[in-house]
Design a protein that fits this description.
The complex is a heterodimer.
Chain A (H helix, E strand, L loop, with lengths): L9 E4 L9 E5 L5 E6 L4 E5 L11 E2 L6 E5 L6 E5 L9 E5 L3 E6 L4 E7 L6 E5 L8 E5 L3 E5 L5 E6 L4 E7 L8 E6 L3 E6 L2 E7 L4 E6 L4 E6 L3 E6 L2 E7 L4 E7 L2 E6 L3 E6 L5 E6 L4 E7 L8 E6 L3 E5 L16 H31 L15 E2 L4 E8 L4 E8 L4 E8 L9 E4 L9 E6 L7 E10 L5 E11 L5 E4 L10 E5 L4 H11 L16 E7 L5 E6 L4 E5 L3 H15 L6 E4 L1 H48 L1 H48 L4 H15 L3 H10 L4
Chain B lengths: L4 E8 L8 E3 L11 E4 L5 E7 L2 E7 L8 E4 L10 E5 L2 E5 L5 E6 L6 E7 L2 E6 L2 E6 L2 E7 L4 E8 L6 E7 L3 E6 L2 E7 L4 E5 L10 E6 L4 E7 L2 E8 L7 E9 L2 E8 L3 E7 L9 E7 L4 E7 L7 E6 L3 E7 H4 L6 H34 L5 E2 L6 E5 L8 E7 L3 E8 L3 E5 L3 E6 L8 E7 L5 E8 L12 E9 L5 E9 L7 E3 L12 E7 L3 H9 L12 E7 L6 E7 L2 E6 L2 H18 L3 E6 L4 H31 L15 H8 L9 H18 L7 H12 L3 H9 L4
Antiparallel strand pairs in B: 1-28, 2-3, 3-4, 4-5, 6-7, 7-8, 8-9, 10-11, 11-12, 12-13, 14-15, 15-16, 16-17, 18-19, 19-20, 20-21, 22-23, 23-24, 24-25, 26-27, 27-28, 30-31, 31-36, 32-35, 32-37, 33-36, 34-35, 37-38, 39-41, 40-43, 40-44, 41-42, 42-43
Helix pairs in contact in B: 5-7, 5-9, 7-8, 8-9
The chains are: A alpha+beta, B alpha+beta.
Keywords (chain B): Coiled coil
Protein name (chain B): Bardet-Biedl syndrome 7 protein homolog isoform X1
InterPro entries (chain B): BBS7_GAE_dom (IPR056334), BBS7_pf_dom (IPR056333), Beta-prop_BBS7 (IPR056332), Quinoprotein_ADH-like_sf (IPR011047)
Chain lengths: 717, 715
């Protein structure tokens, strides 16, 4: 594919560097769009081609006449805009710094609100969802989402496991109300409706971008370079690139994708086939949809990190980007002919292969005059997965049915290998057998598709046959069935009640666990089911007891696993609501620690901030004094400068300490939220929601005992 | 880029060797030209084009691979005879496809190129150039290395013929009557010759294309053969074929390259030495094996191209393509016909596939022996950065490569492919890597480099690298390529013995005597040296140059006796290890003696002193640049005057040219010199302390200290 020579419809230079992904386009006066971007650490630039933004804090830039600069004293993490104020259609600018959110009315030069965000700020969007009709600012933090209205009041809060990297509002279940689609760095896309998660899509890497396509489709981009489109929760297609997708936008019936190296491609919506491709002169910083020319239809606005802005109109199938019809019918025929020759060539190669094979088909099996490419025709490859307790992994056994050997095996699977998605085995010549073991260690409990390419031949072959197999690992494949019943099942468990026949539960077990032979219910009358399993990861035990009275008890020390099991079972049995009681001493202990930690850090932080402010003030006083001293006494000046230097060093040390406490605080908050999230996952439906609401309240009032109570018995609903 | 040419596909044939497509000269003034193409299946086709549809004039039966196709250029007559070479056979065909000549020569190697002038036939195979007059062997000449290409020139007022021969790793030689009359050394590694079309056959002048991508001119004037580089390679692929394209009254040199690009260079026919101007570039995605210009289909000339996998297409001026020359319905009919053909093939293939798969289910085990995948590969010697490149070309699109070596290596690959280093379970000292290719990739390169900590291991023997090549579609077989990484990858530059001057060198010497043959010594040296070695002969002498340090290695060997001289003491040490290792393996007892001069390190270091200083400065700049880049300076803030002092601004503005830097390599190599020198010259007393000092001195570029340590006899 060659880079096409599509010309942009407009092009401008900002003459400022642009921080990637911190760019937005806002209509501050309600009509004219202005490109707004973070330029460097703490500077915001606003491009206003349609006449100046009123005076105020924004200063006219020296480097570009149509650009104003706005300086903040904080790092800028995220920018967003939207008509937050209900009485006006003017866009407000939302500026996210590591711990704060500032809403600023650029047109009136007033601050709307200023709010601390202890969970951190990763991404801000504006939009409405659920029952909320007004435009809200939605903030994705390190492990939470939060929505605030124009006065800065929190309207909504929820925990999300993992750092939130992307949010969109999207009507996922087609009920006319928007849901929140949240992509986080733990590789899940979650759908939040009415403060409860109604769907969870497992992906293969941290989700970096989400973008709505139409009523039923949305597009996503991952940190590992994958982009794709989902339709009603089912993946239509995906492609992978070496680069990271910085932004994806739906423009004119094509999916435009902007890669971090400055390449932009337009892809067909249903297949992902590349239609057009351009390359910017520098790395990309953003790609947005906006009617920047005021022509009535949004253009694709691409911004490079050097400040170059290019605008492309929506892609049109027939004419391409240029209105002149360039493709004559004869040209189309010629391209088709080139394509057909490609096909013909491939077919001829394959045909030759079979012909040559048939010609030499009656060669003998003797190893002496065996050609270097030979293999018995009836060779077949068999595969099995067994649990290996000693090594704490699954062993994938690949074997042939005759004397041929497995020269090498490549296992392709996403998300289960430490580096990349390929795992390879290449035994040494002395160890070549017709059987090869490949260890697998899925790190999390999700279903995995494993593709295997095995190279089969004789040890001295020059060419090997490729055998390809695909196997699906069930969700809980890392648990091995134990035959013996245990007496002491530990004191960590979750208890709940379901009304379902044991037979159906049996099917669930068969589907979700990797069992050597299927679990069978002996007779129709059986009402109870007791299963003991061993986790291969940490050699811990899991007991599942389904009692005759509908009482279910999952005993495991791992609260996350219990949650996963409940969620999986609830989906299988189609349960909309489930309440449970839980005892997880480990998690409770950790919760206490983290809560204590968080409150300690909070104190330390305010003390440090005060010290810093004090020193900074001293310096501002000392500096002019030193300068004055230069006029009369050099020795005095030197002394004063020495003091300044000393204070400065103290300030720097203070700064390091503050940074590390901040990091600690974030980490503590994150693990706190993770535990809460796991507690939520022990319940389904409104009971889960109740846990969120109750624990938010408890965290705010710093009530540890209440939190633990909530975890044990759920929130009151 | 001034020209606008469009691609028109004509047909497909088998895999083609370089320069096997030829356009025949027209019979009359207004007749379209025909062309002949020979492929690996041994099929020679003569085709003409009518309304973009190929019409077969004649087609031979399959046979041995055709490695060369030439047209007879009888003086005064039109070139209307086609000659093909396959194996050691030469066949002659008339325009109508009648065989009028078929000779089997006594040559032992495959004929790689040939020349026909009148009744004279010149064949090149391996290292020999054989001259036949009236089909009888007249004389022959054995070159120092493989003959790559040849051009014949008549001598004025004589029946004698002068031959310009390109010799691998050496340059060009001019032969007359089986004797060498002139030679020139071309370091860029020329691979293909092309004689400008309108010159008198007596002027000896030819363009060459080289493996580093450059293009130059060879001329014989006033009894000396000289060469001149006209266009630098600049990262373009190696030249596979050259041709001429005449358009708008101008002659263009067309260049087909291994990386799939085709260029047209405008040549000033009155002054060949003038720099050719690039007019057009096209990328076809796979190596180009032939380019030729001619009026094949229309009255205006077009460029006919054949690729490695056997695609034949034309590049024609766009205004002609979109013109009304070919009626729409004919094109549509052609498309429909092809569609039908593809559908038929699909069905046939499906049938065969079914048959093949049935075989796999039968109890009676037959043997499946698919033909080897057509994958060409080549391992290049290291440049100054130490990376060795492996190039692979396949006739079918590739899915992935799987690479194994029993020692850790650094690897890089194409931008069109994703390299993953797979974790290896067993010992941890080996490396497993997979390279996943983009759809439709037919050529891919990997670069391999010893890591500094495994370099010590490689001093004992060459390293074997296994590459499994997996195609994307059928046939589902993986070809195994086995490569040997030499222990001294840097010695990739060839040099003739005479041109060693300029430096004062102190040569260390290694002598090996024992009961071994030249062939055995050659095979031992393949463990150490990259690229092809001279074929065994009674006495062999060659010189290689280190691509980074520019130290030399002179190898002289004959049966039972070998002498290696180098001003790089580490090279001598490595060679000694390898020779003794290999001889032990072969059970041949050899006697190894060496002579290491006391001042070898000092003298050699003085030779690289300047280079060392430059690299030291570069390294410093690089560190500084990294530091500056961390400051995250905003270049738009310059209104308050320059931010950086002059020195820093210089470093900051020197954009990309200091990214690569070999300072650390240099330090390591010099250190190794010292260690080897101490070991070999038996000053084996404790020198650990000294070497640490040396390393520190090298790192800080304290050259006086370095020289002092290097020249100290004993500490």
């Amino acid at each position: 594919m060659q880079i096409s020579t599509v010309q942009p419809v407009f092009k401008l230079e900002l003459n400022h560097k642009v921080t990637p992904n911190v760019v937005t386009i806002a209509k501050y006066d309600g009509t004219h769009p202005c490109l707004t971007a973070a330029a460097g650490y703490d500077k915001i630039i606003i491009h206003h081609p349609h006449g100046g933004v009123g005076t105020g804090r924004a200063q006219r830039s020296q480097a570009h006449g149509e650009v104003s600069e706005l300086n903040l004293s904080q790092a800028i993490i995220a920018l967003a805009c939207g008509p937050l104020k209900t009485d006006s259609n003017r866009d407000m600018l939302l500026i996210g710094s590591p711990t704060q959110i500032l809403a600023y009315d650029v047109h009136d030069n007033t601050d709307l609100f200023f709010k601390e965000a202890p969970d951190g700020v990763n991404v801000i969007i504006t939009g409405s969802f659920g029952k909320h009709t007004e435009t809200l600012a939605i903030i994705g933090g390190n492990s939470s989402v939060q929505a605030i209205d124009w006065e800065g009041n929190e309207v909504f809060w929820n925990v999300v496991s993992g750092k939130v990297c992307a949010i969109i509002t999207f009507d996922f279940d087609k009920d006319g109300e928007n849901e929140l689609l949240i992509g986080s760095d733990d590789s899940f896309i979650r759908v939040l409706k009415n403060n409860q998660f109604i769907a969870e899509i497992s992906e293969t890497g941290p989700i970096l971008s989400l973008s709505p396509v139409n009523e039923v489709r949305f597009a996503y981009g991952l940190a590992n370079g994958t982009i794709g489109i989902y339709e009603e929760g089912i993946r239509l297609w995906r492609v992978k690139s070496k680069q990271n997708a910085l932004a994806i936008q739906w423009s004119g019936d094509t999916l435009a994708c902007c890669w971090s190296n400055g390449r932009v491609d337009w892809r067909e919506g249903t297949t992902g086939r590349v239609l057009r491709r351009i390359q910017m002169r520098a790395n990309a910083a953003a790609m947005l949809l906006a009617d920047y020319r005021s022509v009535g239809a949004p253009d694709l606005v691409c911004v490079s990190d050097k400040g170059e802005v290019l605008g492309y109109p929506p892609y049109q199938e027939t004419a391409g980007f240029n209105s002149v019809a360039k493709n004559l019918p004869s040209e189309e025929d010629r391209q088709a002919i080139t394509e057909l020759f490609n096909k013909k060539q491939a077919l001829m190669v394959e045909l030759q292969h079979y012909e040559a094979n048939a010609a030499s088909g009656n060669a003998s099996l003797d190893s002496l005059d065996r050609p270097a490419t030979a293999m018995p025709t009836n060779t077949r490859l068999q595969m099995a997965i067994v649990h290996s307790e000693d090594e704490g992994c699954l062993q994938l056994a690949i074997s042939t049915n005759n004397e041929t050997i497995v020269r090498a095996a490549l296992v392709l699977a996403e998300g289960i290998f430490e580096n990349g998605e390929t795992f390879a085995r290449h035994p040494r010549p002395s160890q070549l057998r017709s059987l090869l073991h490949v260890p697998l260690r899925p790190p999390r409990d999700v279903p995995v598709d494993v593709h295997i390419k095995a190279l089969i031949g004789y040890p001295d072959s020059e060419q090997f046959h490729i055998f390809e197999l695909t196997k699906q690992l069930p969700r809980f494949s890392m648990y091995r069935l134990l035959s013996k019943e245990a007496r002491n099942k530990g004191n960590s468990y979750v208890l709940f009640r379901i009304t379902e026949r044991v037979q159906r539960i049996c099917i669930w077990v068969n589907q979700n666990f990797l069992l050597e032979e299927e679990l069978d219910i002996e007779s129709e009358e059986t009402k109870e089911l007791h299963i003991s399993l061993l986790c291969l990861r940490d050699q811990s035990y899991l007991y599942m007891d389904f009692g005759a009275d509908g009482q279910v008890r999952f005993s495991t020390h791992d609260i996350r696993l219990a949650g996963d099991l409940i969620q999986s079972l609830a989906v299988y049995l189609n349960l909309s609501e489930l309440q449970s009681t839980a005892q997880f001493p480990e998690a409770e202990k950790k919760l206490r620690e983290e809560m204590e930690h968080v409150s300690q850090i909070g104190e330390a932080r305010s003390r440090l901030a005060a010290e810093t402010a004090e020193r900074a003030q001293l310096i501002t006083a000392l500096l002019p004094a030193a300068q004055d001293a230069a006029a009369y006494d050099l020795r005095e000046m030197l002394n004063r400068y020495k003091e300044v230097v000393m204070l400065n060093e103290e300030l720097l040390t203070g700064c390091y300490i503050r940074r590390s406490t901040q990091e600690q605080a974030v980490a503590s908050l994150k693990s706190l939220h993770t535990i809460l999230q796991q507690a939520v996952r022990l319940r389904v439906g409104k009971y889960g929601k109740a846990v969120v609401a109750a624990s938010r309240k408890a965290v705010q009032s710093n009530n540890i005992e209440a939190l633990i109570k909530i975890m044990q018995v759920g929130g009151d609903s | 880029m001034d020209y606008d040419l469009a691609r028109i596909d004509y047909t497909v044939c088998g895999i083609t060797y370089p320069d096997t497509l030829k356009i025949m000269s027209p019979l009359g003034p207004k007749v379209d030209q025909k062309f002949a193409i020979g492929d690996k299946n041994g099929v020679l086709q003569c085709l003409s084009i009518k309304d973009e549809e190929p019409v077969v004039q004649f087609k031979t039966l399959p046979g041995k691979p055709i490695t060369s196709v030439q047209l007879a250029t009888t003086a005064g007559q039109q070139a209307d005879k086609i000659f093909t070479a396959s194996g050691n056979e030469v066949k002659g065909y008339t325009r109508k496809g009648k065989v009028f000549l078929c000779i089997e020569t006594a040559l032992t190697e495959t004929i790689t190129s040939m020349c026909i002038i009148g009744n004279d036939l010149i064949l090149c195979s391996g290292r020999t150039v054989t001259f036949y007059r009236d089909l009888r062997e007249y004389n022959s000449y054995v070159c120092e290395d493989r003959v790559l290409d040849i051009a014949a020139f008549a001598v004025p007022n004589s029946t004698r013929i002068r031959l310009l021969v390109l010799v691998a790793n050496k340059g060009a030689v001019l032969l007359e009557n089986g004797k060498l009359i002139a030679r020139t050394v071309i370091s860029s590694g020329p691979s293909r010759l092309s004689v400008p079309p309108s010159t008198h056959v007596t002027d000896i002048v030819a363009f060459y294309g080289a493996s580093d991508g450059s293009i130059g001119l060879i001329a014989y004037e006033e009894l000396t053969l000289s060469s001149k580089c006209l266009v630098d390679g600049r990262g373009l692929g190696s030249v596979v074929c050259l041709g001429w394209y005449y358009n708008n009254g101008n002659f263009h040199l067309s260049v087909g390259r291994h990386d799939g690009s085709i260029q047209l260079y405008l040549i000033d026919m009155d002054n060949f030495g003038e720099k050719p101007r690039l007019k057009y570039t096209y990328f076809c995605g796979e190596p180009v094996t032939s380019v030729a210009g001619g009026c094949v289909s229309t009255e205006e000339s077009e460029l006919l191209v054949a690729t490695f996998s056997g695609r034949i297409f034309a590049l024609r001026a766009s205004h002609l393509v979109s013109g009304v020359k070919v009626p729409q319905d004919i094109l549509a009919a052609r498309r429909a016909k092809l569609e039908g053909e593809v559908a038929r093939l699909e069905k046939q293939t499906a049938n065969e596939r079914e048959k093949y798969q049935q075989n796999t289910r039968s109890l009676h085990a037959g043997l499946s022996t698919p033909p080897l995948l057509d994958v060409q590969h080549e391992l290049l010697g290291a440049g100054s950065d130490g990376w060795q490149e492996v190039r692979m070309t396949s006739a079918v699109p590739l899915d992935m490569l799987f690479i194994y070596c029993n020692q850790k290596l650094q690897m890089q690959t194409d931008t069109a492919a994703v390299l993953t280093i797979c974790s290896s379970m067993e010992t941890g000292s080996d490396i497993l890597a997979s390279v996943r290719c983009q759809a439709g990739t037919r050529r891919v390169w990997i670069k391999i480099r010893y890591t500094s900590d495994t370099f010590i291991n490689s001093r004992l023997e060459g390293k074997r690298v296994l590459i499994y090549v997996l195609p994307a579609g059928a046939p589902r077989v993986a070809r195994l390529l086995s490569l040997k990484l030499p222990a001294l990858p840097y010695y990739s530059k060839h040099e003739s013995e005479k041109d060693l001057g300029s430096y004062e060198r102190t040569l260390s010497q290694l002598q090996v005597s024992g009961n071994y043959s030249v062939a055995e010594m050659t095979s031992w040296l393949t463990e150490a040296l990259p690229g092809e070695l001279p074929r065994p002969a009674s006495e062999i002498t060659f010189v290689r140059i280190h691509s980074l340090l520019e130290t030399i290695l002179i190898c002289e060997y004959q049966r039972g006796n070998a002498t290696f001289k180098s001003d790089n003491v580490s090279t001598i040490a490595v060679l000694r290890n390898i020779v003794s290792n290999c001889s032990v393996e072969k059970n041949i007892s050899v006697e190894i003696t060496f002579d290491i001069p006391e001042d070898c390190c000092v003298q050699s270091f003085k030779n690289i002193e300047n280079k060392f200083k430059v690299e030291y400065q570069k390294n410093k700049d690089l560190i500084l640049k990294n530091a500056i880049s961390m400051l995250d300076l905003d270049s738009s803030m310059n209104e308050e005057g320059p931010l950086l002092c002059q020195e820093y601004a210089r470093v900051w503005d020197s954009k990309d040219n200091i990214i690569k830097n070999q300072f650390n390599d240099l330090v390591e190599m010099v250190l190794q010199w010292y260690l080897d020198w101490r070991t070999l010259s038996l000053h084996n007393d404790n020198y650990g302390n000294e070497s640490t000092k040396l390393q520190a001195a090298l790192k800080d570029c304290r050259l006086d200290n370095v020289l002092k340590i290097l020249s100290s006899k004993n500490s």
